[in-house]
Amino acid sequence: MDEIDAIEHEVSIMGKRHAAGIEALKLVQKNRGWISDDSLYAIAELLQMTVSQLEGIATFYNLIYRQPVGRYVIHVCDSISCYLTGYQAVSEAIKAQLGIGYGQTTEDGMFTLLTNACLGSCDKAPAMMIGEDHFEHLTPQSARDILQQLQQERGKKPETTQK
């Protein structure tokens, strides 16, 4: 099923074209990795929405990416629960391991690091999400171990860039 067919399927479920906006964005992002301006315009036209309406949806949801991201997008929760249970130390360990700051992507395109206001793991804080996987009760060492495992799967330590 191509993207247009998949979006039309979502429209048939939602009943109204504009109601399928977030699902359309998620479908295109799943195939392409992020939502380019061209993709945004095409989706808006298909759903008979204005580009501004769809952009509003895209920028509201922090899991829709409007610029290229790495193979692994890391969302580190910075809610008050995570902050009080070790967020800062975990955050510093992740940044040091990857050699990048928030909003940056490693030079090899493997990791993008972002914050997230809440991952719904307040009772298991600190937490992070990589792709669809949640990691909870993090320590600086457990966060480094998770990243090292992903790096080893790729076979090399990522080169970094400061943007």
From TrEMBL:
Entry-linked SUPFAM superfamilies: Thioredoxin-like (SSF52833)
User: What are the record keywords, sorted?
Assistant: 2Fe-2S, Iron, Iron-sulfur, Metal-binding, Oxidoreductase
Q: How is the cofactor bound?
A: Binds 1 [2Fe-2S] cluster.
The answer, when asked if Iron is one of the entry's keywords, is: yes
Task: Write out the coiled-coil annotation as residue ranges.
Answer: none
**UniProt binding sites for [2Fe-2S] cluster:** 77, 82, 118, 122
Indicate the secretion signal residues: none
* Keyword field contains Iron-sulfur: yes
Alphabetical list of Pfam families matching this protein? 2Fe-2S_thioredx
Which family does the entry's similarity section mention? Belongs to the complex I 24 kDa subunit family.
Quaternary state and partners of this protein?
Composed of 13 different subunits. Subunits NuoCD, E, F, and G constitute the peripheral sector of the complex.
Protein name, UniProt field = NADH-quinone oxidoreductase subunit E
Per the UniProt entry, what species is this protein from, by scientific name? Thalassotalea litorea
